[in-house]
Design goal:
Length: 103
């Protein structure tokens, strides 16, 4: 039965994922990059590439729940509080926040 639809499913899957990317994920990355660029212009953060910085920060943040859903484990098998605390520290350094402004 699955063989009867083998040529349809890959195209459908690609179409669904592309729609999800364009409808939800790409906008999140673009908004993150816009915010980082804004903060850089205001002198609040220091980063050379807002788009790449947004991609790294957002993808590392979304990886935790995705891995937990896919395989039942989290990165390093960490509980959410420890992961989030480390992510916030990492984000502050990545954004070039001065030490006094870091959490």
């Amino acid at each position: 039965m699955a063989e009867d639809h083998a040529d349809v499913v890959p195209g459908l899957r690609e179409e669904l994922f592309e729609g999800m990317w364009q409808g939800v994920l790409a906008g999140g990355y673009a908004e993150g990059a816009r915010w980082i660029a804004e903060q850089r212009e205001l002198g609040r953060v220091q980063t050379g590439d807002p788009e790449a910085t947004a991609a790294v920060l957002l993808s590392s943040l979304t990886y935790y729940p995705l891995l937990r859903l896919l395989i039942g484990h989290t990165p390093g098998d960490l509980e959410p509080e420890r992961f989030l605390a480390a992510w916030v520290e990492h984000a502050a350094v990545t954004l070039g926040l001065p030490p006094a402004a870091r959490p």
